[in-house]
Design goal:
The chain has a domain of about 50 residues. By secondary structure, the protein is mainly α. It is flat and about 70 Å long. The two termini are about 35 Å apart.
């Protein structure tokens, strides 16, 4: 890889200061990328859906029944939706990892070259 005047590696095909002409288009510190924000009075799709289902519990029940029927027939998409709903209601179950005898598994991450101590393991 080529090196520049300060002996720093340089990316091939790029020259120092190549993006200087773009600096004027970058956001200033503390500046919002969306200064107008969301229009006043707008309602999110999630909020609309929650409102509709809470106002029409029989509709929510019918949707859930349909989803459960499809899942019982083995529909993979329906099963995925059911898993997602359960995860959002109860939270995802923690994944436990156990060794062959049921003991906990320890994982050691090391950055750099192996040492004599880690090569024996």
């Amino acid at each position: 890889m080529a090196e520049n005047a300060e002996n720093q590696p340089r990316r091939r095909g790029r020259r120092p200061g190549a993006a200087e002409h773009l600096k004027k288009y970058q956001w200033k510190k503390g500046q919002s990328g969306n200064p107008g924000g969301c229009p006043k009075g707008s309602i999110s799709l999630v909020r609309m859906l929650r409102q509709h289902l809470s106002d029409n519990p029989e509709r929510a029940h019918a949707i859930l029944e349909n989803l459960l029927d499809q899942g019982a027939r083995g529909d993979e998409k329906a099963l995925g939706f059911i898993r997602e709903i359960i995860d959002r209601i109860d939270g995802k179950a923690p994944q436990t990892i156990q060794g062959p005898g049921g003991e906990p598994v320890s994982v050691v991450l090391q950055w750099g070259e192996p040492t004599a101590e880690t090569e024996d393991e």
